[in-house]
Each structure stands twice: as structure tokens, then as C-alpha cells.
Design a protein that fits this description.
Layout lengths: L5 E8 L18 H13 L6 E2 L8 E10 L6 H11 L4 E9 L11 E9 L13 E2 L6 H8 L4 E4 L14 E12 L2 E8 L6 H13 L7 H8 L14 E7 L21
Parallel strand pairs: 3-10, 5-6
Antiparallel strand pairs: 1-3, 1-4, 2-3, 5-9, 5-10, 7-8, 8-9
Helix pairs in contact: 1-2, 3-4
């Protein structure tokens, strides 16, 4: 790649040990962005600044986070991947580095973000997946949850599902799809939208689980959405079960396709 080439990256990370994606001063724990920029900076032997598609929260995982930076030294894609991965901690990995047009922006060029929320619906909390899933011991009625989820699809004011500290200028977002399915011992929520508010997916997951356990009626989500009042909602679901699994861009950028994830959910499509 020539010096100044814009490079897009696909990054996978386990968010358990990090204070989210975004680098911030005076945090007691590192962020994913800090670790990534330090690794890229060592490859470049100078500071490198990255921009991401979605600023995931503390504990949230990235299976297909997309970021970009401008190459200051003219390395190849393979050199960026292998060099940075050699400097990164084992719970953060770059899968590819792809040259893109200067018009590309990881955040502003995105057409949609796709999140997956995974709930272990078992009588005993799974030990091996403790930081990878949310646990709900009470049986979840998936059909009821699916029916309730229909109220959240479309363009709405999602004030009832945004965190109090959310800094977005507008609560209006468009949810393109929201599916709830059971797979073995797991209940999986798949949601795609143009963008998300702070804690929006986790608040949706908490509300849907309240419906699934029978604590709330199926039409409650419609009423909650119309209320625009976060205090009337369910508890915010744990960050452990949340994954950024994909970001969609115009095909003209030619980014590599992303497999279904997370990888441990083998066999689920």
C-alpha cells in the first residue's frame, strides 16, 4: 500500500477485560482502541489513530468490529495484520486489513450495524461460557418474545430503551430486523439497525426476557416504546451476552465478507 492509503480492519475481541472500545483518559482498565492503536503504532513506529463503526461498551464483545486508519508508512495488508497481531493481547485479533477509497469512514459510511445477543436458558449457569453469554434460569417463551419484538421494528423514538447517559442528539433510530430464535440451550436475539443508542440492545434484551418469562404481557413493548420513558422498562441486560457481529457497507468498497459469529456458536445460522 502507498503512504496515505486508507485501510479498513476487521477486529475481533473479547470485551470482558476492557472498558469498552473508545480510548478515554484516566480509566483504570485499558480499552480496545488503546490496545489496537498501540499495536499499530509499533508496526508504524509512529502514532496511528483509528476510527470504528460502533463504540461498544464495557464487557461487550466484537466479532466483526470495523475500523479504519490512514497508513503513514506504506505497509502491506499482511504486514499490518501479522505485525499488529504480534503486539496485541490474545483476546484482540485483526482478521484482515483492506485498502479502501478515501471516502470510506468506518462509522459514517456504514449502512447498518448487526448485533447478536446470546442467552443461556438453562437451570444452572454454564461455567465455560460465564463471560460469553447472559444466563436466564426461567424458561423463555421464544414465540411470545418474537411476537413482542415486532413492535420494535421500524423507525421509532427509542427513548424508553436509551441509557440516561446517552449523548446521541436524537433518539430516533430505524430497526431493520429483530429476530428471536432458540438454538439448543440458547435463546439468540439478532438485531440490525441503522445505528444504536447507548445500551439500546441490552435494554431491548432485558425487556424481551421479561416478556419471555411471563413477567410482562406480549403487548407491553408496544406500550413501553410509546411511553418514551426508560424508567418504566426492564433492567438492562448484562453486557456478557452482546456481540457486534457485522457492519454493512456499500459493495463498492469491496470489503471481505464476514462469517456468522461468534465462532463458538457453531452450527447456528
Amino acid at each position: 500500500m502507498a503512504i496515505g492509503t486508507r485501510v479498513a480492519l476487521r477486529i475481533e475481541y473479547l470485551g470482558t477485560s476492557y472498558c469498552g472500545w473508545q480510548a478515554q483518559p484516566h480509566l483504570p482498565v485499558a480499552t480496545v482502541q488503546e490496545c489496537l492503536e498501540q499495536a499499530l503504532g509499533k508496526v508504524a513506529d509512529q502514532p496511528v489513530t483509528t476510527h470504528c463503526a460502533g463504540r461498544t461498551d464495557t464487557g461487550v464483545h466484537g466479532f466483526a468490529q470495523i475500523a479504519h486508519f490512514d497508513d503513514p508508512v506504506g505497509r502491506s495488508g499482511k504486514a499490518w495484520v501479522m505485525g499488529a497481531n504480534g503486539q496485541l493481547p490474545p483476546d484482540i485479533r485483526i482478521h484482515w486489513a483492506h485498502p479502501v477509497d478515501q471516502s470510506f469512514h468506518a462509522r459514517h459510511s456504514a449502512l447498518a450495524r448487526r448485533y447478536r445477543y446470546v442467552v443461556a436458558n438453562t437451570t444452572v449457569r454454564p461455567a465455560h461460557l460465564a463471560s460469553l453469554v447472559t444466563w436466564q434460569r426461567r424458561p423463555l417463551a421464544v414465540e411470545t418474545m418474537s411476537a413482542a419484538a415486532e413492535a420494535l421494528v421500524g423507525s421509532h423514538d427509542f427513548s424508553a430503551f436509551r441509557a440516561a447517559q446517552c449523548q446521541a442528539n436524537s433518539p430516533i433510530r430505524e430497526v431493520y430486523s429483530l429476530e428471536v430464535r432458540r438454538w439448543n440451550d440458547f435463546v439468540v436475539l439478532d438485531i440490525a439497525a441503522n445505528a444504536f443508542l447507548h445500551h439500546m440492545v441490552r435494554n431491548m434484551a432485558g425487556a424481551l426476557m421479561s416478556v419471555g418469562t411471563g413477567s410482562r404481557p406480549v403487548d407491553w413493548l408496544h406500550e413501553l416504546l410509546a411511553s418514551r420513558d426508560r424508567t418504566l422498562g426492564a433492567d438492562t441486560a448484562s453486557s456478557a451476552g452482546l456481540y457486534l457481529v457485522g457492519v454493512d457497507y456499500p459493495a463498492d468498497y469491496g470489503l471481505p465478507s464476514t462469517p456468522a459469529g461468534p465462532s463458538w456458536l457453531t452450527g447456528y445460522v
